[in-house]
Specification:
- By secondary structure, the protein is an alpha+beta fold.
- The protein contains 18 helices and 23 strands.
- Strands 2, 3, 4, 5, 10, 18 and 19 form a seven-stranded mixed β-sheet that branches. It has a five-stranded antiparallel β-sheet with strand order 12-11-23-22-21, with helices on both faces. Strands 1-8-9 form a three-stranded antiparallel β-sheet.
- Helix 9 runs antiparallel to helix 18 (533-546).
- The chain is elongated.
- The N and C termini lie far apart (132 Å).
């Protein structure tokens, strides 16, 4: 009987011990490990799904899409779940247009649970892969950026990175507005993995559309003309800009060489530059219009003021000559501008009062600082500080040497001459999310009478005997200025490399369009009147008809 009692006691003790262990284990799991287990259960039963936001479109002034977002997928894999990597790679490569060896290398990685096989695969191709029902593949919805016009304004639009962030151009500047915000969805599943509840925990906020002042048809014309310039003159690069001088709206902004916006990696880095804001150059004779305008505004000269023009003019330690010795003996201010006399421009600057007032006017026209255009990467040029002027400086600056500017700075300054004296920041973005963008106010730098006089004198440049007689447009009076600038290389002016340019507006009396063509290092000819002015004429002649601006 004692033996039976001992056995019962032993069994009871074991049972009590097991019960104690169970209680302790339950307490451990229920109290100490509660939070960890709750999170683990939630992971097994809940999933958070990111819902990608559609990036806003970039469109021209007429609503034509220039940059859009299209449905796409990232295709990923868990390598250990892919049974025949070689066979899978061979199937996927032609569909997703990726290198077969690269896919195979990714699938061979057994040290990871997740690898990308393709990013931003167009939805139609991704669905073809889904139909193959390959175990171990994962399909993650997203959007991919596409540019319907391929080459159009690619340096202006910029590029979007693999993860949807703007990296350059307007895509970078307005990335916050374009990108929007991804949404989040909560998915609750049962033990078998079947969904029980789907709830959006954070709504998707699509990106805002950006509307430009650019006109796709004008842009196309400018790019076609620059392509002809590139083929004929084989320059290092070229830029063409068309602007409304009264509002500062950029109607076209073309760069050459061209870049396919859908294949930016195929172009060299220098071709991706927006030369209109990112390159500095010496303006040469196009700068003479500002020298004349300053002297007129200060009341130091009139269009009829005459200066003696010798064949050679000694200024400080240098000798000045004109590109052509017309043998006139003397020239009026109007003739100095028409025939682009270097000697005359230097004498006009001397009449202004010398270096201090001239330096004031350089800055008043906006040189040496950003224009404020809503494009990234804007350079500010190079303006010599007044304290660093040498004795020969005023023999250089009035003719556009010894100063570097950007094409956009030249457009802003010439717009002030064309619009009656108001300097204002150019702009290319008209609306964001359907709301007009606030434009900075301009400031008056010249009187209307001065600008009217300069416009009249610039007509002579395109008239008979002027340096750009070939830029005449039948039915319209046009005005502008040529530039042929030697490039400074290693501290010396080159006799081989030049920048040929032309800046002008139409109609001359009441300008509706302002345009510039700048050609960097043309081959075969160097003069702005022969290289840049004919291209300017093609662009502006088209624009006048397209914008229905009546002949005078």
């Amino acid at each position: 009987m004692q033996l039976i009692d001992r056995r019962i006691g032993f069994i009871f003790a074991v049972f009590l011990a097991l019960l104690t262990i169970g209680a302790v284990r339950a307490a451990w799991l229920g109290v100490v490990r509660a939070d960890d287990l709750e999170r683990a259960a939630a992971v097994q039963q809940e999933a958070k799904i990111t819902i990608p936001a559609r990036r806003g479109s970039i469109e021209d002034a007429n609503g034509i899409d220039l940059g859009v977002s299209e449905p796409a997928m990232d295709i990923a894999a868990t390598p250990r779940l892919v049974t025949d990597a070689t066979k899978v790679a061979a199937k996927l490569a032609p569909i997703i247009e990726r290198d077969e060896t690269t896919i195979l290398r990714s699938l061979a990685r057994r040290d990871t649970q997740f690898v990308y096989l393709g990013r931003g695969i167009p939805a139609e191709r991704a669905k073809r892969v889904q139909k193959l029902k390959i175990p171990g593949l994962e399909f993650i919805p997203r959007y991919r950026r596409a540019y319907p016009r391929d080459w159009m304004a690619s340096q202006v639009l910029g590029v979007v990175g693999t993860d949807g962030e703007g990296l350059a151009g307007l895509e970078y500047t307005f990335d916050k507005q374009l990108r929007g915000r991804d949404g989040e969805r909560r998915l609750v599943k049962d033990a078998m993995g079947q969904p029980l509840e789907i709830r959006d925990t954070r709504p998707v906020e699509p990106g805002k559309d950006v509307t430009l002042t650019l006109d796709a048809n004008l842009q196309d014309q400018a790019e076609e003309v620059l392509a002809e310039v590139g083929e004929k003159w084989k320059p290092k690069g070229a830029t063409a800009i068309v602007m409304d001088p009264h509002t500062g709206s950029l109607l076209a902004l073309a760069n050459w060489p061209r870049v396919n916006a859908n294949e930016p990696d195929q172009a060299p880095d220098e071709a991706k530059q927006n030369r209109a804001v990112a390159t500095n150059y010496e303006p040469g004779s196009t700068f003479k219009a500002f020298t004349v305008a300053a002297a007129l505004e200060e009341g130091k000269v009139t269009p009829e003021t005459s200066f003696s023009i010798p064949s050679v003019y000694t200024y400080a330690d240098r000798e000045l000559r004109d590109a052509e010795d017309l043998g006139l003996g003397s020239m009026t201010v109007s003739e100095i501008l028409k025939y682009s006399s270097n000697i005359g421009a230097v004498k006009i600057a001397a009449a202004l009062g010398g270096s201090k007032p001239f330096d004031k006017w350089i800055h008043r026209f906006g040189f040496g600082k950003a224009t404020g255009v809503d494009l990234p990467g804007e350079q500010i040029g190079l303006v010599l500080p007044l304290k660093d002027y040498s004795g020969a400086t005023m023999g250089n600056l009035p003719i556009g040497q010894g100063i570097s500017v950007t094409p956009m700075q030249m457009m802003a300054a010439y717009a002030a001459i064309a619009n009656g004296g108001i300097l204002r920041p150019p702009h290319i973005v008209e609306k964001v999310g359907g709301q007009p963008v606030r434009k900075p106010a301009g400031k008056r730098i010249l009187s209307e009478s001065t600008t009217a006089s300069v416009r009249k004198m610039l007509e002579g440049v395109i008239g008979t005997g002027g340096t750009a007689a070939g830029a005449e447009i039948p039915g319209y009076t046009t005005a502008g200025k040529t530039g042929t600038a030697e490039k400074a290389i290693n501290g010396e002016y080159s006799k081989e490399f030049y920048v040929a340019s032309f800046v002008g507006f139409a109609p001359a009396k009441n300008p509706k369009l302002l345009a510039a063509v700048i050609v960097d290092e043309p081959e075969g000819d160097i003069y702005g009147g022969q290289v840049a002015a004919p291209a300017w004429k093609q662009i502006v002649n088209f624009a006048l008809g397209y914008k229905k601006i009546r002949p005078e």
